[in-house]
Design brief:
alpha/beta; 252 residues; single chain; Rossmann fold; seven-stranded parallel beta sheet
Length: 252
Amino acid sequence: MKALITGASSGIGRDMARVLAAKGWDLILVARRENRIKELKDELGQVNVRCITVDVGKTEDCHALYDMVKDEQVDMLINNAGFGLAGEFTKTDLDTELNMIDVNVRAVHILTKLFLRDFIARDSGIILNVASSAGFMPGPLLSTYYATKNYVLRLSESIYEELRRKGSHVKISVLCPGPVNTEFNQVAKVKFAVDGISSEMCARIAIDGALKGKLIIIPGGMMKVGLFFRRFVPEKALLKLAYGFQKRKNDR
């Protein structure tokens, strides 16, 4: 079995590679930081690992990535690459936000479509898209990031239903964690107001859920409870709560 993981150089992507390697999966590690994925390859010496250095934020790189591996049997695609940016919408950098949309949305859309066509043709394969608990919520002060994760969640859900209606054996899952201890904080320039779970735990839960064909994977009991009660809060009240929560993160 073979998995391709984008954003494999750190955090959840790196730990998902470790989880899959422990299960005997061969890997294709994709990231911009070549040195990081080569270090990971050396660590995972017990399985076959291929490293590909591309920037999935570029449309041409997404197509080039697919062309490089389309003749191999990739059994699992993990769209993990992504980042965030905190701040008031009128004050955050537009170019950074557009790049975020390219990485968090456009790359996920392109790679999901290209690989899904192959998976459907052979009636096997797993897609794991990494979203966030942000996908269920509005996100003032992290508005673009939250919007991108809403997209990933709803796209994945819609594809799931299309596959179910076809009676397809292809599986699609979407990972929606709350705070996770990764490099996300430094990149987004925030600090979580509550303690995050470990990246290792998140990765293990994600891979186990995807292999079982679970549609929505939410690590952590507290996050599940919070999302359950979210549905009972009026939208404007939810916006006020979300703003206060994000403000505390930005001020820490």
